[in-house]
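Two proteins were folded this term; both appear here.
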Amino acid sequence: MPDTPQRLPAFTYWPTFPFEGDLRVKRLLDPVPVEPPRHGDNPAECRACGAPDEAYIWVSDRWRVRSLDRPTGLPAVLILESRSHLDLGDLPNMLAAELGVMTVRLERAIRSLDGVARVHVNRWGDGAAHLHLWFLARPYGRLQLQGTFLALWDDILPPIPEEQWRENLALVAAWLAEFGGRPLAEPPRINWTAPAKLSEEARANDESSTFGDPGTTVEVPEPATKTGNSAAMVREPAHGNGEDLSAEPAEGNGEEPGAKPALSTPQPVAEADRERGA
């Protein structure tokens, strides 16, 4: 390459290009005579083969889907892997056909998330020998993230909230499970405790509740008792007949008294190579 400054390529002027300011083109290095081995060229050392199913958000007999180990700037970044230690060109006809089905299915699952406009599907394969396809969700309305540089923007944008990230993973896993396989990602645990500030304000409002003429304070009844996850109004026995009216569940949640919500902690996910060349 000549030492004289080169004119910057046209893509540096695209509105989607993430950088601005003074840029210069790197010097192109001479080609190496022998390329270094990729991770997993020796199947005995392949991290994907050695990872347990619990490190994935969804698994089947022949395919597995994993996420990164933490939220990033995009609504979802997922990786589809074959369970067998094969590269793209090594797939037999049956798995090659299934790869097309799985690609479409996973794209639809990610695109079903709120706020997702498009899903970019990428395969590089320079860093690892085990087949893996990247699926990157572009947020709706973020036109600056369109096209080639979405993977770069993912590292630039601030991470999305972890609860939203875990919920997205659980929704994708459940969507895939409708067609088979086993979902392993679960939604975040719900915090049932009201904030202390909110509780104090509600109590103050109750104590100062007035009706009718100013200065007339009405006694506030005791709050409804809780049974499991459903509020039940406890009625006093009817005067005169001793009849005890059974508790009725509060309207609006459709749950039986005593029902408990399914709470669980998301499964850990495998460490992913953050370099897009993997």
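Next, the second protein.
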Amino acid sequence: MTPRHIVRSPWRRLHAPACQTGRPTRARPRPGGGPMSTPAIDRILRGPSGLGTSGLLFRPQLPEPEAAVPDVPAPEAPEVPEPAVSAAETVAPAASVSEAVVPEVSAPEASVPEVSVTPGFRVPSGHVLPAPSALTASAVASLLGAPATVAPSGGKPKPGDPIPGLYYHPVAEPDPVRVEALSAKLKVWAMEEIELYPPEWEKDYDGFSTGRYMVACHPDAPSVDHLMLAARLMVAENAVDDCYCEDLGGSPVGLGSRLLLAHTALDPLHTTPEYQPSWEASLSEDAPRRAYHSAMEYFTSAATPAQSDRFRHDMARLHLGYLAEAAWDEADHVPEVWEYLAMRQFNNFRPCPTITDTVGGYELPAELHALPAMQRVIALAGNATTIVNDLYSYMKELSSPGLHLNLPVVISEREGLSRKDGYLKAVEVHNDLMRAFEAEAAALAVSCPVPTLVRFLRGVAAWVDGNHFWHQTNSYRYTLPDFW
């Protein structure tokens, strides 16, 4: 039986204030009643980059007396040069290449931020951090890099143009030397080391341009080997999508069993000696499991245990999203728009930006990654990037058999809109998600200016921008509708 619509993933077409876990706390006013100065915000958001949390000294908060504590701003400390990245702060990959040394990143004005301390403002470990301040446009720009823009409307876009009306941050063309080096190394792994694809799929593999994708998304990666950590996982995720969910053998029937067995290549089975050999043999039974197993071995050799467990958790989220869509497929069900968006929060790109620190050669501590504000930022980033995928692959899906669920289609079906109006409304949904991501990321950076946290936020923002750039410019895979 031919399914009505085909299960797919974000790779389906791709071969409270931040430092507080309790209730929100209003920012305390600075002397004179004005907001924090723009230069102070800019210093918080600019740097220093690459400094581990071990380089920061926070004093544990002492019990407060009953009397009110006066609001006294912290004095501005003299500017100090940024220390070089130490070996302890750099996660090196198992294999080394000539460029495997993490470069120093200069950070002008790496001074202590001009902020006041709010009593009771805590991170989970009990450290005292500055209170949040009012945000400015320059603060957002300092965090997110290139100024945002809205792509102009006026006629059908040409190949390589952004979607008219889409809110995004433009990025520069990725370094072609690094792209070529990464692509060559990745192809050897995919085609020779794990024999992932048969020769007849090579053209589509090349057209995916994974090397260009990863270089655009991880501009702070210290080496090609660091980029390989993300690239292998991306290719492996594509293989699972193609062979389990999509048109290279995929089906909603039996998907749960296939995904469960594949997931054990990421999250190993712990069983008895009698059954361990059978599970180990199963890891090479098909291409997706070989890819997952190999890519994860490389990743765990470079990542910390906390980073590896974070990635496994996000992959479980992804697989749960696959299964929700498979259930709708089998039931021939078109979800409500909010239901579709809920599914897409799981079936989305989240596993990719969440490893930005591993690829960058540092670690965002687990207690900072787990902050509710950080989780919201990462979720918004994953949601926005996934809607980008829905929009750019819209025409590609229309040419395939069956009804493919994507946000424009679901909006049209559920809200009684034309295909054009459904698509244009989906663009606005994306724009709302992007602006929410920007605002939440900037607020978190201001309220919790730990250098590794700010660097991680920059990395997630770079991934969001690089993901859009790759979709926009990959004319081998995508064309846009004539809706303008």
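The chain has 18 helices and four strands. Residues 230 and 359 are 7 Å apart (CA to CA). These notes refer to the second protein only.
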